[in-house]
Amino acid sequence: MKLFPLLISLILFTSCSNNKTAQPETQITADSLHKIMAQYAPGLGEIMGGIQTHHAKLWYAGINNNWKLAQYEIDELKERFVQATQIETERPEVKMIPMMYSSIDSVANAIHNKNMDQFKSAFHLLTASCNSCHAANNFEFNVITIPTAPPVSNQDFKVKQ
Ligand code: HEC
């Protein structure tokens, strides 16, 4: 019976020392988590591809007076910019993203007012802001324009009657 406490301390000792050797392999550190996330998170170029689609869909929703869809698209577009600031924390370009928010808000205002002239001029301003960031960051060859054709053929941009 006297052996019992000894046995307990022996078990404790071995499990503790086992723990010590197992720790580096099993513990998820902030560093490894960051590496895993960086591997699976979309890159800035991918996020921009999404933004490009929302930009084009927003235009077709707006010019069709489809204000509900336009509201949806401007919200999605803004969400992608916010996502870029959260994911791409090490890219210096993302520091310029907040400059987009005022032109995004102008488009949202026009949508709220259901005002076509206001929408068109706010959309032009938004597009110019895309290009000024590209120009400021040596991506001036990525030129964004007012779309001349719907970005997809499998979506109806007209208001459903
Ligand atoms: C804060 C700066 C910034 C703003 C604002 C910005 N972009 Fe970009 N954009 C970039 C950078 C940087 C890249 C290059 C990313 C890369 O490939 O790593 C890029 C790349 C792109 C690309 C190329 C992606 C590809 O794979 O072909 C498109 C398209 C694009 N942006 C669209 C837009 C649109 C549309 C807007 C406005 C609604 C916009 N961008 C606003 C910084 C910006």
Blueprint (SSEs and pairs):
Layout: H1 3-26, H2 30-40, H3 44-63, H4 67-87, H5 100-113, H6 116-136
Helix pairs in contact: 3-4, 3-6, 4-5, 5-6
Residues 44-45, 48-49, 51-52, 55, 93-94, 96-97, 100, 126, 129-130, 133-134, 137, 139, 142, 144 line the site of heme C (HEC).
What are its keywords?
single chain, 161 residues, mainly alpha, Four Helix Bundle (Hemerythrin (Met), subunit A), 0% strand, elongated, binds heme C
Give the structural class.
mainly alpha
The biggest beta sheet reads: none
Instruction: Report the sheet-strand fraction.
Output: under 5%
Mean pLDDT: 88
How far apart, in Å, are the first and last alpha carbons? 86 Å
According to DSSP, the number of beta strands is 0
How much helical structure, as a percent, in the residues?
55-70%
